[in-house]
């Protein structure tokens, strides 16, 4: 039965494949039972997974204890207690040996039963423990199954991945597999998952609500990113039509890849810098491969998202070094940790903040945790000898903050000098401009920073008072809002007049819809997901600055988001008639 | 005679969070110091007997502040075990060192 489901497209284009399901608990249990001869192996896998899990928890617990106090560390001590409990091990081992269950299936079955017992409790706080038990189950399964990529690596035909949600780690692991498209239940257009899916670059539709319950593994699925829908089990006529579209989409992608060698120069000879937004070191090389002039934003907080928890100075040094080397001599801008408002760090906290977006996050968090901050700065300075790097501080609200952060950087430099560890002293230090306060004080900031990068993602959130991750209000989050256009005009102008390098690294930099506008407002450096570089470059090569300025002037006179979007779409379509955007 | 010594005492839970993560771990850590088997029952709830050395099972005790809990121990150090564990609950799971 053919079914059409509608959602939000994060990557346009058509992809056709066989559905592969990631079950709701993130881990695909490959098989339920094993042969008698394999039981010993499963018991061993289980035992090893328990040991590894306890090890991980003890390390994370130590870090929490040092950085966030004993109460935070206590959260994990019960997890460790449960994993060390003979009852748990004994029961799961019995399931494996008596019923020939696989280690993963035995673990899952037992933990689900255990979880269910909490549902009968009267104490509401005890129901919270279900979350803990699920967490323990997930940790065990992860250590039993290894990377979930292992499953995806064994695909033999093009597949469409269907899931409730994807973690950043899972999204990054899609590269190199036969997964050609993704469909998810949840997600907003600017969630972290969306950002990474764009980086991956293949057709993806999210926010479908219940696709993971409506599609079965093995169903033929078509992702139609251009129309923001998916089709499950298409009939013959529909399938033929999509196969044609898929072919022309592939042709378009190939065409875009030839742009790699060509510079981003406008029709009237103005050179534009296109650089990449990355979360993981390998993406630096990917950016350059897609034709970028370097890395405009390396979001270092993703180092926190692995199972190891907080990264050591060594681990950070290795990552920054890898990114700089991966960029092959092109400049790399590294941003210090922007932690605290995303669900990943909030979930790890003992006491969740009521307003994480307005709370102890980002640079404030760093300045309140100087040891962690200095560790990052030391790692960064050590890596700086490898190439052309710049350092950027996020979410600055006042000059005081910037000065404090710079002082901490100098402290870190002194540390390294004492140890006679080499580093570059002349590193440009700049700011992410992403708060209304910083926008209003841009002239003052321009006197003290070496460069400015406009973070429209958060700037727009704070300006419109909208949480972009909240599906209930995400439709209000619209970069076409006239207020944002005015702020961009003023900020870019102030930076230009002060002779301070200005770039824009929010999502809109990578959206062709806004290219003309931003060029016309005076932006000369665009930082975007690597997958978007070719198309933006194509557009830039087809326009002149004069044209762009006319469009910007006109757009600034419009009153509503919809008028702006319609106008920009019409102007862009004149230049790129066939391209879907 | 000493091997099958059974000691039973009852105690009221006085700390505000009851038998939550930290108390459960403190209780089981202390229980494991003794050789005797430790059994815990939440009398206010029913008769289910729970292994006092198991963090997994003890979390299911469902004993908030005000609950009446029976602690019993069987083994040669049963007396010391019960005395220590009852004391822990009566103190509200505060470390003696504090």
Structural overview:
The complex is a heterodimer of chains A (581) and B (98). With 581 residues, chain A is α/β, with parallel strands linked by helices. Among the domains of chain A are: 3-27 and 150-239, Glucose Oxidase, domain 1, CATH 3.50.30.10; 36-145, Enzyme I, Chain A, domain 2 (Orthogonal Bundle), CATH 1.10.274.10. Chain A is 50% helix and 13% strand. Chain A contains 24 helices and 16 strands. Chain A has helices at 39-68, 70-84, 86-99, 103-119, 124-145, 149-153, 168-172, 192-200, 211-214, 236-257, 282-289, 313-326, 343-348, 362-368, 370-383, 399-418, 436-440, 442-446, 456-464, 482-498, 515-520, 533-541, 545-556, 561-575, and strands spanning 3-6, 8-11, 14-22, 159-163, 179-184, 204-206, 220-224, 229-232, 273-278, 295-299, 332-335, 389-393, 429-433, 451-454, 501-504, 525-528. In chain A, the strands form 2 sheets. In chain A, strands 1-8-7-3-4-5-6-2 form an 8-stranded mixed beta sheet. An 8-stranded parallel beta sheet of chain A has the order 15-14-13-12-11-10-9-16. In chain A, β4, α7 and β5 (179-184) form a beta-alpha-beta unit. In chain A, α3 (86-99) crosses α4 (103-119) and α4 (103-119) runs antiparallel to α5. Chain A starts with a strand and ends in a 6-residue tail after the last helix. Chain B has 98 residues and is of the alpha+beta class. Chain B has one domain (6-90): Histidine-containing Protein, Chain: A, CATH 3.30.1340. In chain B, 29% of the residues lie in helices and 23% in strands. In chain B, β2 and β3 (49-51) form a beta hairpin. Chain B is globular and about 35 Å long. The termini of chain B are far apart. Classes of the chains: A alpha/beta (581), B alpha+beta (98). Chain A binds chain B through residues 74-75, 77-78, 81-82, 84-88, 114, 117-118, 121-123, 125-126, 129, 132, and chain B through 17-18, 20-22, 24-25, 28, 51, 54-57, 59-60, 62, 64.
